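Whether sequence alone determines local backbone shape is best considered at the level of individual chains. The sequence in question and its structure tokens are set out directly beneath this paragraph.

===
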Amino acid sequence: MRNLVRFIAISRILMRYRLDSLVLSTPLLKSFKPLLYLIPWHYFPVKQYTRGERIRLALEELGPIFIKFGQTLSTRRDLLPDDIGDELAKLQDSCPAFDPAEAKRMIEQSLGDSTEQLFKEFDQSPLASASIAQVHTAITHDGDAVVVKVVRPNIDQTIKRDIALMYALARLISRHPMSEKVRPLEIVAEFEAIILNELNMLNEANNASQLRQNFQNSNLLYVPKVHWDLCSENILTTERIYGTPVGNIAQLKSDNVDLKRLAEEGVIIFFTQVFKHNFFHADMHPGNIFIGADGNYIGVDFGIMGTLTETDKDFLADIFLAFFNHDYHGVARAYIESGWASASTDVAAFEKAIGRICEPMFEKSLGEISFGQVLMDLMAEAKNFDITVQPQLLLLDKTLLNIEGLGRQLYPQLDLWATAKPFLEDLVKE
């Protein structure tokens, strides 16, 4: 019954933003479009939003799980038109705070003691509140300032309910032959794996500890310490950090931070994670990056991490080096040798298509070319030739686009190629 009520609520929101019309205008379901004329609300006026805005607004109204789904879907640029992908990228994962007394109860239940025994001080006023968890500040009995991340009560039930509905819709869409290119069940399964992983705070604690260890002998990136004795599946306690949000350019300039150095080191941090550590922070948007008093990077929020296989890393090095050498046969060969192409792939036609995509990019200087855009365009074209797009590379590309955007916001003249080339050449030598 609850699923039925939720389904009706979702349907009403989709109707409000005319997404019933949008969905039925797609090739998958357009044969059902005449049914719209039998529905009264089809004749009511609607505000003049673009289709991307309508989808984003509907997801925001549908609630936190659908917001997270939209954020995940925004990384699948191989499936989405640019206007929809750009709007989904604007989704902000913030929600009203839940009752602090409930947060206190969950901490005590999960950690087996009262907050007074667990902490010297505990601030019941939340510092931040998002779809999965709420954050409170505290002081340990050792005098350490910490942040305590508390999973929302009953969020697992909400997630299971909404994902069940997503699967039902995905199964409906997958009955259409054209769904093979969209793979709706795969998209929902990918989202389910991501959000269930984020739900377990011990996963994030492990991620933070691994990343901290990877950079323990480097000043490039500071990762907060995990207080393992104050962690559980529902609770994550980490060192509290203090810094300037990386997007606050005015404050960074006022603090005399070298923005050119900062932009270049951001790229170095990314490629170090990808090609040397094989473990990268996959949610490096400006809200998760701060600059400390020493002018160096501080990272937070380690719920989504990425890893690459040796095949993935070889592929990336090969296509980028081939691209910058105008070797489009080399780009095509990298795709074929990766094993992701089907028997029906026309390699010669694929090589020509790559040339059509890449040549206009060289009207810019090397420093102005976007690595992320190159990778996105190549993956989108690969899909047209029955070449499977790897989810881990899509996650990497989203992160790369974030890093590029941030780097050029800090220092518009950033030459990404000059910074990345040594990493790629070293990988090829290896």
Observations:
- The longest helix spans residues 155-174.
